[in-house]
Amino acid sequence: MTRIVVLTGAGISAESGVPTFRGPDGLWEGHRIEDVATPEAFERDPDTVLAFYDARRRAVASVVPNAAHRALARLEGGLGSDLLVVTQNVDDLHDRAGSRNLVHMHGELRRALCVACGARPGWDGDLLDRPACPVCGERMLRPDVVWFGEMPYGLDRIEQAIVACEAFVSIGTSGAVYPAAGYVALAAAFGAHTVELNLEPSDSVVPFDDARAGFATDLVPAWVDEIVTARRQRR
């Protein structure tokens, strides 16, 4: 039985037109990370933080899944629960492509998080005007995005899947942000075959068994075709 864990990062969504936001100067659309992506920033200047994520939410709504997203959804159609996609992205392009066995470890732009009651309702509108939480009624909603210094979602599920997987595949991620940056080492330590599909080689401390450079929209469908063909040949 094939068990595959796929980790995706900003590179896969960039080819749909989703900005990676962090430019060569280290700024996110002109903002320092410390000013828009930390709990302290939200406490200090909530209007700037809410406006920043409202703009990101609107931007993501205007783009569509690309061939790489669709290929992973197609692979899930064949593997079912034997494939887990873990994404560091906060967009919903995997969801819209059809992936269901999916962990958004850094949260989702299309969800809000109520600071008062902890509810995580689906959310498509703006948060800057302080709408009421649909669960408790308090006007204390923030983006359901994991900021620097906060704990990612689903860590136990992710790590259990990686320890048990036969193949670990990293797509479009720099390998610089932990804990995700350590997943290739964890997979390799438990004997998994490791594959990197990236625009350029990442800075991973542990080398991948198979590293391919290029666009995700080319590499991912080709890799999925290889997996599908191999499964057919084993039957």
- Beta content comes to 15-25%
The gross shape turns out to be elongated
Mean pLDDT: 91
Q: Give the low-confidence spans.
A: none
Radius of gyration: 18 Å
- Put simply, the count of helices is 9
Q: What is the number of beta strands? A: 8
Percent helix among the residues? Answer: 25-40%
Subunit arrangement of the protein:
single chain
Tell me the series of helices and strands, N- to C-terminal.
EHHHHHEHEEEHEHEEH
Largest sheet: 6 strands, parallel
Q: Taking strands numbered 1, 2, ... along the chain, how are they ordered across the largest sheet?
A: 3-2-1-6-7-8
Report how far apart the termini are. Answer: 11 Å
* Helix-and-strand structural type: alpha/beta
Notable traits:
alpha/beta; 6-stranded parallel β-sheet; two-stranded antiparallel sheet; 17% strand; elongated
Structure, explained:
This protein is of the alpha/beta class and 235 residues long. It has 9 helices and 8 strands. The strands form 2 sheets. A 6-stranded parallel β-sheet has the order 3-2-1-6-7-8, sandwiched between helices. Strands 4-5 form a two-stranded antiparallel sheet.
